[in-house]
Write a structure and sequence with these properties.
389 residues; alpha+beta
Length: 389
């Protein structure tokens, strides 16, 4: 089928192989008793919500209905009613959408051959791990208890520094501590893991060290330490204030982590604060350690874009299953949009790309021509003949 004859949304859906999708549906048996609204139709509806920016079930239904004549290009027979979407959001297993995200990640992440400065220099895989709270109203989402009067989910993500895409993601209740989720993960030997202070569990850090994983994090302010040796810092890097080898001296902490550690003190001019960076890498320059921790901003940007550009703050369903379906579809939307951004010849800003896509979502134009050259140059008008010629 010619891509000129189908919409941008339909072409974006072509990035998802239907055979692979149908295989996941069969594994999870999510088309049983579908009553005409199968898993693909459900997925298209929820992805349309994320990419078009609509905020209600009625808007999803009416938005797809406005594409009359193009629905078959989307793999739909008819536009779903809002009650149908609501019912399936509550009852269809969200795990099929989670597995779809991971299958797409496996397909598109290896093709994003973008190596960054420190990843290229260190010749190691760099991972950045963090979590972000998704606030929920406890009166509406009574299953998502977080604090006495607040509800929340927590999105845990491990970002691959080479690609800027999550290599792992998990949605848990808001109460789950970051370290508990981190302890379930395995990182390859010789890789680098960058985390913040919330992940400082000395027994876990010792396990990482034993596995050959290099970690960069922040030293807790109440840590009992002994300075073993101090080193001269490079005058070229004024933000590096000190570089020291230390050992933990607390009664319990020294049992959990008996090995030598390193602390690099840096000044963060942007936030006007001093940071004590903790690492088990004893030989790299202090500036390399500081730059690695600075790279942690990437995961903050990822969460920021997810919350600002996709529907993860207001939900069209109140059940735990409905919320998770919407969250995983937002992650799939983010994955597809970032893939377009990285592969495009035009230097898109992510927010501009999603905004322009929303304005043209049902426009029939070649997707890659549009992504590579969104602004066609105006053709010069033909020269006008003089009245006296």
């Amino acid at each position: 089928m010619s891509t000129v004859n189908i919409s941008l949304f339909a072409q974006l859906l072509q990035l998802i192989e239907r055979n692979s999708f149908d295989k996941l549906v069969k594994e999870h048996n999510t088309d049983k008793h579908n009553k005409g609204f199968n898993t693909w139709s459900h997925f298209v509806s929820m992805l349309f919500m994320q990419l078009s920016g609509v905020s209600s079930l009625r808007d999803i239904s009416n938005g797809l209905r406005s594409a009359t004549g193009n629905l078959n290009h989307l793999g739909l027979v008819q536009s779903p009613s809002k009650s149908t979407i609501s019912y399936q959001n509550k009852h269809r297993d969200y795990n099929v959408f989670m597995d779809l995200f991971y299958s797409l990640l496996d397909k598109y992440e290896p093709s994003l051959a973008r190596r960054r400065k420190y990843a290229r220099r260190l010749k190691r895989k760099i991972f950045i791990m963090d979590s972000s709270i998704i606030p929920l109203s406890l009166s509406l989402f009574d299953w998502a208890k977080f604090r006495t009067k607040k509800g929340a989910l927590k999105l845990h993500a491990v970002l691959d520094y080479d690609t800027g895409l999550p290599s792992y993601a998990c949605i848990t209740d808001g109460k789950k501590h970051d370290v508990k989720e981190a302890k379930q993960l395995m990182f390859p030997s010789d890789s680098v893991l960058v985390v913040d202070r919330a992940y400082v569990d000395y027994a876990w850090l010792n396990n990482l060290d034993s596995s050959g994983v290099i970690f960069v994090t922040r030293l807790k302010s109440n840590a009992d330490i002994e300075i073993l040796e101090s080193f001269l810092t490079n005058e070229k890097h004024e933000h590096i204030l000190s570089d020291q080898d230390i050992k933990l001296t607390g009664f319990y902490t020294i049992q959990k982590y008996p090995n030598k550690l390193r602390v690099v003190k840096v000044y963060d001019e942007q936030n006007d604060q001093y940071l004590y960076l903790l690492t088990n890498q004893m030989f790299w320059t202090a500036d390399t350690i500081s730059q690695l921790y600075k790279a942690r901003w990437d995961v903050e940007v990822f969460f920021k874009h997810l919350k600002q550009l996709f529907r993860v703050k207001s939900f069209v369903g109140t059940s735990s299953n409905a919320v998770r379906i919407q969250m995983w579809c937002s992650m799939i939307g983010m994955l597809l949009i970032r893939f377009l951004k990285i592969k495009a010849e035009y230097k898109w800003n992510l927010s501009n790309l999603i905004s322009f896509l929303r304005m043209n979502i049902f426009v029939k134009i070649n997707l890659w021509k549009w992504v590579n050259n969104p602004f066609k140059k105006a053709e010069k008008p033909p020269p006008q003949k003089s009245l006296f010629d």
